Every structure is written in structure tokens, then in C-alpha cells.
Amino acid sequence: MYRNPGSLASLLTNPIFQAAASSLFVAQFLKTVLNLAKAKKSDIKDALLVFLWRTGGMPSSHSAIAISISSSIALTEGFSNLFILSLFLSLIVIRDALGVRRSSGLQAKALNRLGTEVSARLDICYEPVREVHGHTWTEVLVGALLGFAIALFFAARV
Hints:
By secondary structure, the chain is an all-alpha fold. It has six helices and no strands. The radius of gyration is 19 Å and the shape is elongated.
């Protein structure tokens, strides 16, 4: 049956789209389950926040999505120009999640600790900065492997 390439049905049945969406969903779901397992109390609001929004943690959904897109393009279209583009964009995403965001998160944490101590000693107001959570190498690796496995699953169905 012919499907209009610009249709919603075409998008939803595209293995590249399916791999990327599934990678995001599975990585965030696993992150939520692991977060709930570590938490002392089970809070549904916090669980939804982790699932829908929070960054950082195991596994890296950034890596899962990026690698699933690059891998599914390679598996369905070969080493095309689109694959090359997706590969280098994936490397940028992973590098950012691992390096820049992690470093800025650690710096924000140290700044907040220092600001709180100085605030208490000098009796001045300190408003904490937002701590952005990046990823460790292990979180990135597990996310990348998850994304690759999901891409294999969807590409094998083509």
C-alpha cells in the first residue's frame, strides 16, 4: 500500500523514528525505575518528573537516542550522507552530555555548597544556582548500547 511520505502514518511506521522514540521511552523508563529503587520513599510526583523531564542518571537517554538514530540510519540506508551527519551530531550530543553538562553540574554543586556556607557565616541571602546533571562514562555507555540494541530490533523488522 502506498503511503504519502509526509503523512503521520509514514512517520509512525518509519524504523528510524520508531527506534529513536523507543530509545527515549525505554531509557527514561529505566532511569525512573532505578531512581525509585534507590529512593527511600516512593513519590509518584518525583517519578513522573524523572520520567518526563530530569536529565542525568542511568542510562543516558541522550546517548540512547543519538546512537539509535545513527545506527538505524546505517542499518536501513547504509553509510549514506545522512548517516555521516547523524553520526557527527550524535558525537556532539554525547560529548555535551558527558563533558560540558557534567562539568557545569559539578561546578554548580560546588558553588551552591560554598554559597550556603558563606551565607550562613555572614548572614547574607544566597540563592542557589540550578545544578544540571550530566552523565558518567558508564551511563553514556549503557545508553549507547541500549540505543544500538533498539535500533537493531527496529531495523531487523524492515
